[in-house]
Amino acid sequence: MNTSGAVNAPRPLDGAGDAPTLSELEAQAGRAQPAFGEHAHILCDNLVRIYKTEGVEVVALQGLDLLIEKGELIAIVGASGSGKSTLLNVLSGLDVPTAGIARVAGTDLLAMTAKDRLRYRREVVGFIWQQTARNLLPYLTARENVRLPMRLAGNKARVAHADELLDLLGVAYCADRRPSEMSGGEQQRVAIAVALANSPQVILADEPTGELDSDNSEQVFAALRRANRELGVTAVIVTHDALVSEQVDRTVGIRDGRTSSETLRRASSDGEIIAEEYAVLDRVGRLQLPRDFTSALDMERRVRLELERDHIGVWPDRPKTGEDE
Ligand SMILES: Nc1ncnc2c1ncn2[C@@H]1O[C@H](COP(=O)(O)OP(=O)(O)OP(=O)(O)O)[C@@H](O)[C@H]1O
């Protein structure tokens, strides 16, 4: 009970003289809270992409949230049709989302002019596609392929820089060969050099090992990892390849156009890699439970929740039994 009779009277601050004035309090309240993902290198906030074909709407991304830090190397996995390529097309500036926020290295992808888009695609991001033929021009050598984007961006197409990149990716010996004179894995490693030609901040790869055998896949993934570690470039790889998804620090699972799970890998004190899977909680508290968990317990329309001291219990919708305790 307040016995002072001075209800809501400003309270003097300990040893600080006067209490804050109304205008100070207003200024404090108005001070911007850090926005969602303000410091992320890649930010997707409630991203929506709806395709309309012949009157039919397909919602490929339905409010996807994703934050990626500068210098991260992450894999994106998900069933066919879950929205992985749609997401990569948005991040690469090839496609424009229907709604939401998409920002890469400070560039707002929904507010770009045609000129901004061209500059963004030439200088901020580099991409590697699954089809080796889509990455390289067949009548140019590896070195010429790497120098081409430098020329197109108006940069100096230095032979030495092209050769350094080919060397970093372990394909210096292919510099004078045309794509038809290289294996699929060599072509993909040259494609990474092409993607890195203008020193982008981010590289995006859509199934870069999809057409390769396991030896070549391993070499291509090692090259991507080297680019990430040595050049500090943020790398996002869409993949079905367990060899890739099980070796990155973070794997993001997409289901029905939303991020649904994340697997984080870290080394234990004895050097063993420990992988832990997490469900993703979105900004309004929605949680997607893995389908194999819900079907194992016949969870369908609703579940019973109980808040415990350090966790939340989730039970099927049926009367409580002693076993639930
Ligand atoms: N241009 C388009 N027009 C209409 N629908 C599209 C288009 N592109 C993709 N879709 C639809 O959007 C959804 C997501 O497709 P997307 O290609 O992003 O999936 P994905 O996860 O990359 O699949 P996959 O692993 O098979 O490549 C699918 O239902 C797909 O049919």
Description of the molecule:
Among the domains are: 68-98 and 109-264, 3-Layer(aba) Sandwich (Rossmann fold); 290-325, no CATH class. It contains ten helices and 13 strands. Helix 5 crosses helix 6 and helix 6 (159-168) crosses helix 7. It is of the alpha/beta class. 29% of the residues lie in helices and 26% in strands. The two termini are 40 Å apart. Strand 4 (99-104) and strand 5 (107-108) form a beta hairpin. Residues 51, 53, 58, 60, 78, 80-86 line the site of adenosine-5'-triphosphate.
- Mean pLDDT, all residues: 87
Provide the CATH top-level class of the domain at 68-98 and 109-264: Alpha Beta
Total count of helical runs of at least 4 residues: 10
Bound compounds, please? Answer: adenosine-5'-triphosphate
Strand residues, percent: 25-35%
N-to-C SSE string, H for helix and E for strand: HEEEHEEHEHHHHEHEHEEEHEE
CATH topology of the domain at 68-98 and 109-264: Rossmann fold
CA radius of gyration: 25 Å
How far apart, in Å, are the first and last alpha carbons?
Answer: 40 Å
What is the fourth-level CATH superfamily of the domain at 68-98 and 109-264? P-loop containing nucleotide triphosphate hydrolases
How many extended strands? 13
